[in-house]
Backbone:
């Protein structure tokens, strides 16, 4: 069982060279080099060039590198995709980092993702590059199941969809729902997207937390997201990384208990049993599957800490 940790997913403006350089040293699991919201219209071309140079140069270590392109309703998105696709030969020659994923904003219908898949196929983009979809509109909430199903589209040349990313600020704007502690107005939408993601085997990353002056509130929202089933959270500042990583990582006690459950089911006398007694509790084989995932995540995190 192999996992890539996606606990902390940090947005960095593609137009800010210092921010990109800093991203190479931060303990975030993933870095999103942004060409969309954080880049002014007259800076789009320069930011695209800068991001291309940054990913070609490499130096991001074990961090997953994601490029957020502009929306499909803009004049820039196609050139963004071309930049990523055409960089393939440079990545190969330099044996350096390539973007592991493209984050596409404002996805509301499955056909939009299929269009991106087809464009990448036409461009002969590296088949290993995944697509992440931002879920940030009312229509996206209504279509979450069909959008997630693109990950298993048998007609696709290359099924690239690997993750949902919640765009909670845009979702609040379009629905007029208030962003309040506990996020009660958003819980139905958050859980709809979690269910859709899990049904089709993709990861799901929670939206950002806006109040940088409230670290306790941020930690509480990370805990909520973890308990709801999210794999991690998008971040807007490096100061949020440490708390986010801690919340979304299994702690030592959880890992020890998981190993105990696995060991119990691997004993010869329990090999064919669906339920066993362990420490006074009834434990089912499904708990062993969950335990293996916990251990796999912990091992993957340790591997990242060790570096390349």
Residues:
């Amino acid at each position: 069982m192999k996992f890539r940790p996606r606990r902390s997913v940090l947005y960095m403006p593609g137009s800010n060279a210092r921010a990109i350089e800093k991203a190479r040293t931060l303990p975030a699991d993933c870095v999103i080099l942004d060409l969309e919201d954080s880049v002014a219209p007259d800076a789009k071309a320069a930011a695209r060039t800068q991001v291309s140079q940054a990913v070609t140069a490499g130096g991001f270590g074990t961090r997953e590198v994601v490029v957020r392109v502009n929306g499909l309703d803009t004049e820039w998105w196609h050139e963004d995709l071309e930049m990523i696709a055409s960089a393939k030969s440079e990545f190969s020659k330099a044996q350096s980092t390539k973007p592991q994923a493209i984050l596409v904003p404002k996805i509301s219908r499955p056909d939009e993702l299929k269009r991106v898949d087809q464009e990448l196929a036409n461009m002969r983009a590296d088949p290993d590059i995944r697509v992440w979809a931002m879920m940030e509109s009312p229509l996206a909430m209504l279509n979450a199941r069909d959008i997630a199903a693109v990950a298993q589209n048998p007609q696709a040349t290359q099924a690239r969809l690997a993750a949902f990313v919640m765009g909670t600020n845009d979702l609040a704007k379009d629905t007029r729902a208030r962003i309040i502690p506990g996020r009660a107005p958003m819980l139905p939408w958050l859980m709809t997207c979690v269910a859709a993601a899990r049904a089709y085997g993709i990861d799901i990353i929670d939206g950002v937390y806006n109040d940088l002056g409230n670290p306790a509130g941020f930690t509480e929202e990370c805990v909520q997201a973890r308990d709801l089933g999210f794999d991690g959270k998008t971040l807007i500042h490096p100061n949020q990384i440490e708390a986010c990583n801690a919340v979304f990582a299994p702690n030592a006690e959880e890992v020890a208990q998981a190993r105990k459950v696995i060991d119990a089911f691997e004993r010869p006398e329990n090999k064919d049993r669906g339920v066993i007694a362990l420490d006074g509790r009834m434990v089912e084989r499904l708990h062993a599957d969950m335990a293996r995932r916990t251990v796999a995540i912990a091992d993957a995190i340790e591997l990242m800490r060790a570096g390349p």
Q: What stands out?
A: Residues 285-306 form the longest helix (22 residues). DSSP finds 13 helices and ten strands in the chain. The chain has two domains: 8-248, 252-306. Confidence is low (pLDDT under 50) at residues 88-96.
